[in-house]
Write a structure and sequence with these properties.
The protein is α/β, with parallel strands linked by helices. It is 49% helix and 11% strand. Strand 7, helix 8 and strand 8 form a beta-alpha-beta unit.
Length: 299
Amino acid sequence: MKKLEGVIVPLVTPISASGDIDKVNFKKLINYVVSNGASGLMPTAGTGEGVGLSMRQRLEAVEFCVEEANGKYPVIPGVIVPGFGDCVDITLRYKKIGADAVMLLTPYFTSFGGQETLLDYFNRFAELTEIPFMIENLPSRTAVNMMPCTMQRLSDNNPYFCSVKECVNDPMQFAEVIHRIGDSVSVLCGFEAMFAWGVLSGAAGGVIATANIFPQIYVALLKAFKEKDAEKVMKIYQEQICPLNEIAYLTPNPGPIRYALEYLGIKNGSPILPVQLPNLQVQKKIRDTIDDLRKVLNA
């Protein structure tokens, strides 16, 4: 599989009033992010509310993405259920549908023995599924932090371990991950706030929730980095990514992102409970920020 890099979008899942995947607007969203520079599609992850979707909805969403991608860009579904057996079962279904890889979290909810157990977990997963996988290291949600030295040990012995979505706010840990495994594993930034730092440290790109709204912002930052224009990197980060990041998390994700897409003309339905759309005050702030960013992007 080609190295995962650039801007991979963890897609919002458009849902119709009947509870089916809204394929008309899902197609519109996919076309929108791809036409604005996205290099990969990630359905059923956190921003796609993979935990809240039914099995039928997950399979329908992944199958539709694979059909739309048609081999032109990778499809990496999120596998974010807590049970090992369910992770394996869902992954095998996604593999049969045609997914290029999967993204899975470190184990959560169930107590376990630490870093050594993580190696056993991912090695056994690879043995049973035989598909490339990205690890989402998200300790703020899982209460498990996979350390750089553990990632290196996994990388040294597991050919299916292809990528990390690193979701830590610790620049030292992020830099150490890149130092230890960046030559063999695609290290991607998972937080908007860390995107510029991650790229300047050597990250291959990012899996960024707000790329649903304006993927071209992140594409432009990567381009500026490749052109060695550090001043432009920081200008994009400060003037575009920071305001976008601020509105995206005023209420729980993906409520604000769903509303922002509606404002951009991409209907996607309501969030899956317990997530809700933002209140009227937050909605106004989202509209104002999008209007401001549109002016910058169209200048």
